[in-house]
Write a structure and sequence with these properties.
The chain is an alpha/beta fold. 33% of the residues lie in helices and 21% in strands. The mean pLDDT is 92.
């Protein structure tokens, strides 16, 4: 199954790690590792989307297709929407957003994100979640939770602990509810181009700004998000200097 496209948004600016996509890991820039993960899927249309000429030059050097995008985008979704427009991709085309700082992302997760949309034509977006097993995570506002309906469409995302077990949680916050799974949202997204065409005209909504969660904009406007449930979270991304050494060690062990 390779009837989809992959876009890798890559920005040079980062408050904690400037130039992050070009950090060398096991002899290659990080963005190249991500690109090679995308290539392993067999997908033909793989695009690196950037607004920085240094990233463009590095990507062209290892043979990637690069699209230069506006410097004014607020998020990766807007950048990918511009790529879809520039490329003239059909409204029913499916795109997986592969983050440029995830050099250890499993091929299976990319494929699952795409399949979630390809198999659910009523969905405009797809994403991924995993069951939480630690009560500390369930009540941590930095861990985003999602509640699903019976068909695995997202009902709501929140930094709060949802679903809230009224009877159990009034007694203790040391254990999660046993009535149903508590899911952690993993920020891996798939988009239908028709959704991206709408997205550029969608104003930010109150839910999105309150929770600081971009995906709530889609739900606010009635877009369905299909969620794939995976048993284990994917490998480390690169956000801090400490992550660099950890991820490089893991990449070396895989080579």
């Amino acid at each position: 199954m390779a009837d989809y496209k992959i876009v890798i948004p890559a920005r040079y600016g980062s408050s904690r790690l400037p130039g992050k996509p070009l950090i060398m890991l096991a002899g290659k820039p990080m963005i190249q590792h991500v690109y090679e993960r995308a290539q392993a899927t067999g997908v033909q249309d793989i695009v690196i989307a950037t607004d920085d000429e240094r990233i463009q030059a590095a990507a062209l050097a290892f043979g990637a297709d690069v699209v230069m995008t506006s410097v004014d985008h607020e998020n990766g979704t807007e950048r990918i929407a511009e790529v879809a427009q520039i490329k003239g991709w059909a409204a029913d085309a499916v795109i997986v957003n592969l983050q440029g700082d995830e050099p250890l992302i499993p091929q299976s997760l990319i494929e699952k994100t795409a399949a979630s949309l390809l198999e659910n034509p009523e969905a405009g977006m797809s994403s991924v979640c995993t069951p939480l097993r630690d009560a500390a995570d369930a009540f941590d506002p930095n861990v985003v939770k999602v509640v699903l309906d019976r068909a695995h469409f997202a009902m709501y995302f929140s930094r709060a602990s949802i679903p809230w077990d009224r009877d159990a949680y009034k007694i203790s916050l040391q254990e999660m509810t046993s009535k149903m799974p508590v899911y952690r949202h993993i920020g891996m997204y798939g988009y239908r181009v028709s959704f991206l065409q709408q997205y550029t005209g969608m104003e930010p909504c109150a839910l999105e700004t309150t929770e600081s969660l971009e995906q709530l904009r889609a739900l606010w406007y009635g877009v369905k998000i299909h969620m794939s449930v995976i048993e284990q979270a994917p490998g480390h991304g690169v956000d801090t200097p400490d992550d660099v050494a950890r991820v490089e060690s893991l990449l070396m062990s895989l080579s």
